[in-house]
Design goal:
Blueprint (H helix, E strand, L loop, with lengths): L20 E6 L9 H9 L2 E4 L1 H6 L7 E4 L9 H4 L6 E6 L7 H5 L8 E4 L4 H9 L7 E4 L17 E5 L5 H11 L6 E6 L7 E6 L12 E6 L29 H11 L6 E5 L5 H8 L5 E6 L2 H13 L6 E4 L14 E4 L8 H8 L5 E6 L2 H14 L2 E5 L2 E6 L2 E6 L3 E7 L2
Parallel strand pairs: 1-4, 1-5, 2-3, 2-4, 6-7, 11-12, 11-14, 12-13, 14-15
Antiparallel strand pairs: 7-10, 8-9, 8-10, 15-19, 16-19, 17-18
Length: about 425
Amino acid sequence: MTSEYAGNQGASSEKTSQPWLSVVGIGEDGLAGLGTNALQAVENADFVFGGKRHLSLAAAAIKGQARPWPAPFDVAMTDVVALRGRKVCVLASGDPFFYGVGVTLLRHISANEVMSFPSPSAFSLAASRLGWALQEVDCISLHGRSIDLVRRHLHPGARLIALTSDEKAPSLLARLLAEAGFGTSNFILLEALGGPDEKVRHTRADQFCLTDVDPLNVVAIEVVADEKARILPFSQGLDDALFEHDGQMTKREIRAVSLSSLAPRHGELLWDIGAGSGSIGIEWMLAHPSLRAIGIEQDVERAQRAVRNAEAFGVPSLEIVIGTAPDAFEGLPTPDAIFIGGGGSRPGVLEGAITALKSGGRLVANAVTLEMEAILLAAQARLGGSLIRLDVSRASPVGSMQGWRPAMPVTQWTWVKP
């Protein structure tokens, strides 16, 4: 997995005193569903941007120049920003600020330059058709994103509404559910909501065979799990058996303590040095959708395994960098937290991690070998922080009876950079 390290630059510092940009949410009912102010925003605009479908829905009211979005889509919104100060209207689906183009726009344009006229989102429309309380539903956008994102939400009794990309996505989503042990889930396909071609069709995930699917659709799921369903608990320290691994991984008890020490907070980035199976980065990202992680792993086979685990756990955006620390640190964005689980005794790794960590960031390093433990003891004597010793024993057969078999003890150093 790869990602571009381009930070959110935020809205431009160049601002106008009056709003010049209107963002109008339009549904499948077209102009009939717009309020007076929204309709006037379309009619009065010198330029109207939108997808071809949106421009067609609003065609009768467009008096200025209609400008379809370029392909590929320009996330920098160059054409819109270039018209700053002119009367510009952007058409969007439903609520522009719920997984919509409005979010992209306001990364480059200040909110005080914008007037927004939202319509009901696809999620609101779907919930209203089904009689579901929207605040009790997990709303997920799979539009242009991996369907693996749904996996973390698959818990018995949960209700999900997923915005899809096209007519193929519902079939793929149904297959994922069936393969993960949720095939008996109630699977509801809602198409062209709010328009004259609206349809709502019910089936079971493992019996999905619906045809003539409208590309504009959302899927609602009432989750039912079978005995072998792959359910990802909300707790830290997930069962080792859920991960694909070669035995070289941070075991669940140690992982739970390590994640507690890392103390994830909203929007933070973790470096997982010596990622192995990817378990630490995966559980870090599972703690909250805003969290990001980069795993650094020198072994190609293990790196590929970490990628597969990330997909299976519904966090496909986990970044895996194949390389040797500390050289692999070069060019990576500054982390809020760092975990060193493997390779920490290599020259320069701990020092490089300390240098890279942002002020106020947390570093957690685990040692199994005497060599790594000596490094951590010296670091604690020099820099402070806390040291703990973790010992875990598991019951195992001893002849016809059972006894305690201790695992290798782990020394953990936790440090906050001043």
